[in-house]
Amino acid sequence: MAIREVAASLYAWDIADEGVEAILDKLVEHAAVNSVYLVGVMHKEKRPFTSMFYAQDPKRSYYLPEDSRIYYRFEESSFSKTRLRPLGSDRDFLKGTDWLEALTKAARKRGLRTGVELSHTIADNTMVLQECPQALQRTIDGEAIPGHLCPNSPDSREYIKALFRDTVQNHDIDFIQTCMLLFSPGRPCRPPWFVAANGGSTVGHLLGVVQGGCFCENCAAAAKRMGSDWEGIVDGLQPLVQMARANMGSHNEAVVEQGLLLSSDLLESGLLLEIPALYQFLQFRARSTTELFSAIYAAVKQVRPSVEFRYNNHRLYPELVGVCFPAVRDFLDSVRDSDYSAQRGAPDGFARKRATLAKVRRGIGFDKPLIAGVAVRPKATPELVRRSICVVNDMGVDGLSLGHYDGSTMALLDAVRQGLEEAGAGGT
Ligand SMILES: [Zn+2]
């Protein structure tokens, strides 16, 4: 297969600081980029993310974004059916400018593909708590889970649909990509330090899910609509909740059982056989996620059938946030995978990268493009960038997506073009 797309992401402040033409000059010439997208809704995360300071930004050393602002024009009236409100930037150098339009206009002059990403959290958490706290996911104890909109909340569902629909309606984009947070996966469970965990086991990740979401009233209603015994599921999960929370101090009731489980070689299937409620909970979450993807897909296709809906997988185990690729594949046009092994020096020789690409490809089939993330930021070296491109080309991917320009250096961008040549991955 030939690699047909080399995508790069930009932030509004990158464009404000360096200028869109200067950035596109570099990306096209040095990294063979033929597709650019704005991270148009960005969470509260220091940039650059994997190093302290920018290497290329001419105006600042680092940037601290606001929470979940939208960096392009939107119609307030599109959100009339939800209590959640979209928020633009309050920063003087960003507000009032449609940064997505600035990027797409410049990109089109060069014949580039254009897109936008709605990143992890797509609504300001303070606004959600003030306007509609019921929209947030809940733990089994009813505590709100910040940043995680519940896909079964009518307000969340309507806000998400309106945001996707409005974005496509008002912008010249070929694709709309998202890595929005889906169901909270809780926290992976680990035994006490003196217990030898079974290093090959992932059962701790599965156990951790019971500390995630969602157990809200809307989920209870949705589960019943789907024919599930919701009360039975919640009751059945309680012993696992005790085991997941166990620690040597304040929660010591199930600490021995937890230590035995996490040091054992019981497969995940063994735990599911013991606790059928756990499988029913996972199944309910996957059905809910599939319904959400179906709603987003219908919303964007209604506006423009040719627009591409791309899911950006950012999870080690997407199945634990509710994503079952064979179930959602009919409601996706492509998948980007966010493995950035090279930025950690690829200590596993790209084994994890191969594994995640194989998992996604098996799930979506060969008629949906698979786009591999390629890290162009520390600790990636030019050699690792070139090697990673050869690895993903061997895995039969259809495109690359650089992660991310704001952490890159010129040497790493140059390595992208060189890697494509070394891999013999023509077609860009
Ligand atoms: Zn819920």
Q: Which geometry do the CA atoms define?
A: globular
Strand arrangement within the widest β-sheet reads: 1-2-4-7-8-9-10-11
Helix and strand element order: EHHEEHEHEEHEHHHHHHEHEHEHEH
Total number of strands: 11
Profile the largest sheet.
8 strands, parallel, barrel
Secondary-structure-derived class: alpha/beta
Q: Helix amount, in percent?
A: 40-55%
Small molecules bound: zinc ion
Q: Are there runs of 5+ residues with pLDDT below 50, and where?
A: none
Please describe what this structure looks like.
40% of the residues lie in helices and 13% in strands. It is α/β, with parallel strands linked by helices. It has an eight-stranded parallel beta barrel with strand order 1-2-4-7-8-9-10-11, surrounded by six helices. α13 links the parallel β9 and β10. It is globular, with a radius of gyration of 22 Å. The model has no long low-confidence stretch (mean pLDDT 96). Bound molecules: zinc ion (ZN).
Descriptive terms for the model:
single chain; about 425 residues; alpha/beta; eight-stranded parallel beta barrel; two-stranded antiparallel sheet; 15 helices; globular; binds zinc ion
SSE diagram, text form:
Layout: E1 5-10, H1 12-18, H2 20-31, E2 35-42, E3 69-70, H3 99-109, E4 113-118, H4 125-131, E5 136-138, E6 144-149, H5 154-170, E7 175-178, H6 203-208, H7 217-225, H8 230-245, H9 255-262, H10 268-274, H11 276-303, E8 308-313, H12 325-328, E9 334-337, H13 351-364, E10 370-375, H14 382-394, E11 399-403, H15 410-423
Parallel strand pairs: 1-2, 1-11, 2-4, 4-7, 7-8, 8-9, 9-10, 10-11
Antiparallel strand pairs: 2-3, 5-6
Helix pairs in contact: 1-2, 2-15, 5-11, 8-11, 10-11, 14-15
The protein binds zinc ion.
